[in-house]
């Protein structure tokens, strides 16, 4: 009897965890953190609430896992562009071009989850809002570091304000995300990106 009970307790989950996580990503991406309820998640993921809690923990824990997977699968293009290109200008230019494509891909929620998921959160979601803010600021710091390296090498003028220029790029990317959610198409965002680069020193 004990062996039978142990076997039942140890039986594998009846759902694909990766598929369920992908559906959670899409729910948070489309609706934001606070507006996405547990019932929304269980419906989208095709699992029961007890299965969700057993596999992922609470809603906040699921969200953090969803954000991490989002960054790996969808949102890491900015960091890659800045790291892989030989100058900050080329990295930012590539990142803006890729943002125009990524934020408007058919079959996907519009914009960036990290930018939009905690726009309208209350005090109960302050920890989530802070975590996403830190991610966005981390991207700006990466851009600023690349700009400072170019100033040191002479690629950019010595009087370039690295902090302001990096902040400007962050504002452009965040604006492109919101514009895509408002219905802008890829060509619209590419025009914005091209115009934005004219401000580069």
Automatic annotation (TrEMBL):
This is TetR/AcrR family transcriptional regulator. PROSITE patterns: HTH_TETR_1, HTH_TETR_2. It comes from Streptomyces piniterrae. Keywords: DNA-binding, Transcription, Transcription regulation. It holds the Pfam family TetR_N. The lineage of its organism: Bacteria, Bacillati, Actinomycetota, Actinomycetes, Kitasatosporales. InterPro entries: DNA-bd_HTH_TetR-type_CS, Homeodomain-like_sf, HTH_TetR, Tet_transcr_reg_TetR-rel_C_sf, TetR_C. Residues 37-56 bind DNA. PANTHER family: HTH-TYPE TRANSCRIPTIONAL REGULATOR YJDC, TRANSCRIPTIONAL REGULATORY PROTEIN. One of its GO terms (molecular function) is DNA binding. Residues 14-74 form the HTH tetR-type domain.
